[in-house]
Amino acid sequence: MVDEATKKSLAQIPLLKTKAGPRDGELWVGRLKEEYQSLIKNNKDSDNDWFRLESNKEGTRWFGKCWYFHNLLKGGKICLTDHFKPLWARNVPKFGIAHAMSLGLGPWLAVEIPDLVDKGIITHKAKEEAAA
Question: Which residues 6+ apart lie within 8 Å of 7 measured at CB?
């Protein structure tokens, strides 16, 4: 069911152990540490630096930017919606934010950005400024 590239990508992201939410006090602090360690390991060890994430102090709101290059066009904003929630929810507590990014947002960007560029929906800023 899962192709070899996905298995390889998944194997590089540490699985999480702590099942906790924001109301779980110290358990939640432990879970946040696991989340951050997983994100750092995923980005640094696999030279997979295509997004930046941060959270508020409590770890209840996450925000950031991602980027994808297609024909020298760079773009993207993070929008984790219901598209990625089912993947994440089915694998709690083992999967974390790094898993959702790599297995959800990454493949989505790889498919959608080239399509949006080809349709002219997304354009390079320099081309927009030159036309103005």
Answer: none
Residue 61 burial class via C-beta count within 10 angstroms: exposed 0-12, middle 13-18, buried 19 and up: exposed
121 CB-contact burial (10 Å; exposed 0-12 / middle 13-18 / buried 19+): exposed
Q: Catalytic residue positions?
A: 79
State both tokens at 75: 């773009």
Number of H helices, E strands in the chain: 6, 3
For 15-131, CATH number? 3.10.110.10
Residue 100 · residue 107 · CB < 8 Å? no
Tokens of 35: 């989340």
Model confidence band, residue 100 (pLDDT cutoffs 50, 70, 90): confident
Domain boundaries, the chain: 15-131
- pTM for the structure as a whole: 0.70
